[in-house]
Specification:
alpha+beta, 21% strand, 35% helix, 7 strands, 3-stranded mixed sheet, two-stranded antiparallel ribbon, globular, 198 residues
Length: 198
C-alpha cells in the first residue's frame, strides 16, 4: 500500500504521513519514503553492512496511538516516529489541523464501508472472489473521487452566481485532475487513458 502511494506522489520526499499505532508503518516508512545509503564498513573483513535508509528533512511520520479499556478509547497520544517536530507543525498548519489525527482516513474508510457492503463488519454481504472485491473497491474509490462532491473541499466563489456562493468540488477537482463533477455514467463510459479534462 505504501509503495503504491509513493508511486502516485509527485514528490515522495515531501510527505508527512499520519498513521495509527500499527508498528509495520514505523519500519516501512524509512524503506519506502527514505533515501538508501550504505553504512561505512567496520574494518576490512567480513560482510558489508545492510543498506540503511535516511528519512529526508522534508518528510515525517507521525503515529497516533489509541489506548483502549475494553472497547472504549481512554487516551490518545502522538509520537513522531521519523522527521522533525517543525516539519509536522508546518504540515498541520497547511492542513488547518491543530493536532495530528487520522480522521480523514477513518472518515473515508467509513464511507467505503457504507458504499460497499462487502467491507462492512458483521454484514450478510460477501464477495468470495478477489476479483469481485477488487472491482467493487475500484468502483467505490472512483465514485468517491470523481462523482461525489464533498463539503470540506468546496471553494468560495469570487463573484457569487445568484444564490450560489461556493463551487462544489470532488477530490479529483481539488487536486486538478478534472474541472467538473462527473456523472457515474460518464465516468464508467470513459475509456481508460483518455484525458479527464475533456
Amino acid at each position: 500500500m505504501l509503495v503504491q502511494a509513493r508511486e502516485r506522489l509527485a514528490d515522495p520526499h515531501g510527505l508527512v504521513l499520519f498513521t495509527d499505532g500499527f508498528l509495520s508503518y514505523q519500519t516501512l516508512f524509512p524503506e519506502v519514503f527514505g533515501r538508501p545509503y550504505r553504512p561505512a564498513r567496520q574494518g576490512t573483513r567480513g560482510r558489508f553492512p545492510k543498506t540503511a535508509y535516511r528519512v529526508p528533512r522534508s518528510s515525517a511520520h507521525v503515529r497516533i496511538i489509541k489506548e483502549y479499556a475494553g472497547k472504549r478509547v481512554v487516551s490518545v497520544r502522538t509520537e513522531i516516529a521519523a522527521g522533525t517536530r517543525t516539519r509536522v507543525h508546518e504540515e498541520l498548519q497547511r492542513l488547518g489541523y491543530r493536532k495530528p489525527n487520522t480522521s480523514a482516513v477513518e472518515r473515508q474508510n467509513a464511507t467505503a464501508r457504507r458504499m460497499n457492503p462487502h467491507l462492512a463488519r458483521k454484514s450478510l454481504a460477501f464477495a468470495r472472489l478477489t476479483v469481485h472485491r477488487v472491482s467493487l473497491a475500484h468502483l467505490v474509490q472512483g465514485t468517491y473521487n470523481w462523482c461525489r462532491t464533498q463539503r470540506g473541499l468546496r471553494k468560495k466563489l469570487d463573484v457569487p452566481r445568484g444564490r450560489q456562493q461556493y463551487l462544489q468540488r470532488t477530490p479529483a477537482m481539488a487536486i486538478g485532475l478534472t474541472d467538473r463533477v462527473w456523472t457515474l455514467r460518464a465516468w464508467l463510459s470513459r475509456p481508460r487513458g483518455v484525458s479527464c479534462r475533456a
